[in-house]
Amino acid sequence: MAYLNWLLGEDTRTQVGNVIIILCLYPITNWIYNLYFHPLANFPGPILWRASRLPHMRAVWGKHFPYEIKKLHAQYGGVVRIAPNELSFSEAAAWDDIYSNTDGANPKAFKKGEIWHGNLEPGPSSVFTTIDFKEHGRIRKFMDPAFSERAVLQQEPIIRKHVDTCINKLRSRPSRTVNIVDWFNFTLFDIIGDLCFGESFNCLDKCEFEPWMDQMAASIKLNYQSINIRHFPIVNWLLKPLGGFLIPKEIIKQHMDYRQRSTEKLERALRSNDTDRQDIVSQLLKSNERSEGLTHEEVLLNSMQFINAASETTATTLTGVINHLLVNLDSLSKLEAEVRQFTSSAEMTLQALKPLPYLNAVLNEALRMCSSIPIGYMRVSPPEGGIVAGNYVPGNTIVTVLPVAVSFSPKYFYEPESWHPERWLPEAETDPKSPFYHDHRKAVRGFGWGPYNCIGEPLGWAAMRLILAQMLWAYNLKKAETPHSKIIWHEQDCFGIIIKHRLDVILADRIA
Ligand code: HEM
């Protein structure tokens, strides 16, 4: 008490005044520390961003975070301090340095961190939110076989059934102009639902989303913005009990509904005992029979999260392809010519489509230009720090490679702002006369890199090739004459993922 009196003064007025002075001094000393004495003090970046997390928070709460950071890279170079304890890289070498360490026991590994990936509530483990490397490895060990190239080939009849339904349903629509984004989402929800829960959501049959799907973007946005709060443990702790009041009721209701329906689907999958069904859920449930295998609660939680992870990302890439093809008619013709060499749509199997160079090239170019997770994939540096793109990064720093900065860098790509699928053709790599010969193709890591990379990459490729090829086989695509005939990509809101605008397309039946 005597110490407090000495510090704050004797009478109440002086004490209040001194408390106010201390409260003002705290952030000021903190800013001075961050600017001049913090281990990251020597990294470049705007002064306000280096001093305090508030500008970063403002950018996250705004709608165009990755583009703001991209501008900072243009101004400050390949590494920018975008918050007191956070660095963004636009150097391709950083992919390997940050993400490729496959041995989590290695003290030098950069890992997922509590703030971006930690489990909010105690409970079953999810492949996304498990920051413990060993636990992540256990889950991946049981999941990997269900997502392998081989498994995807066995899943082909299920994938194919929904793609066929999409093509036929589109044909029966009264109007030739459709919002292609909805149709990609219908198809992907049905495919992933069927693979992960043993039954489809029937979006294609009903031509509509389930109510919880309508809330999905809102709930992803909320989660993304609330990550801001986790940087301030006291505020986070104070706000936690209010979570139930702060989260919109509709989102909670739809999430509970989704969970309930998912549990019922999973119980039906368990009861059906159809262990021969070649889908993801059967494989995951079977792992329960093995020591340390996935519990039913873990299968449920992960399957629910797969739906988000798989549908949004894949639909974004496909939307990006169509958006560019409609204004690059030469590119569209080349793709049509490649796909239409087949004599029937039945011939277009996953195996037959896999080697098509131009089909792969347009998808790779969309992964470059239309990143589905443009904010990057956050990691935390090991306690004793590590080297990233030639820079020593002190311990416990949040780091990422910013996909939109690397993918659009003239340092790595010829005419980076332009649509050139040709840069991905095999001859571009071997012909020194090609303008794309010097392109640094490994600068794009659309499916992530290293031990936390995308488990669904083979499925993503399979679904994208099949949907795109079958669509171009069945229809001639034309730009619509509506206000939504083109998406200006960077004008779309970004809350971790891209909140896609609608894209109207005319699908004219093709006379084969
Ligand atoms: C074009 C389609 C897709 C793209 C661009 C994509 C992109 C990515 C990226 C960049 C990551 C890594 C994030 C990080 O490092 O923090 C990731 C992780 C993941 N993706 Fe995908 N994804 C796609 C499709 C799919 C599909 C079809 C599935 C199937 C369920 C899926 C499931 C997952 C899962 C489970 C993870 C977390 C893996 C882990 O942490 O071990 N994704 N995805």
Automatic annotation (TrEMBL):
Keywords: Heme, Iron, Metal-binding. Its cofactor is heme. Heme binds at C454. It holds the Pfam family p450. InterPro entries: Cyt_P450 (IPR001128), Cyt_P450_E_grp-I (IPR002401), Cyt_P450_sf (IPR036396), Cytochrome_P450_monoxygenase (IPR050121). One of its GO terms (molecular function) is monooxygenase activity. It comes from the Eukaryota. CDD domains: CYP60B-like. Belongs to the cytochrome P450 family. This is Cytochrome P450. It comes from Aaosphaeria arxii CBS 175.79.
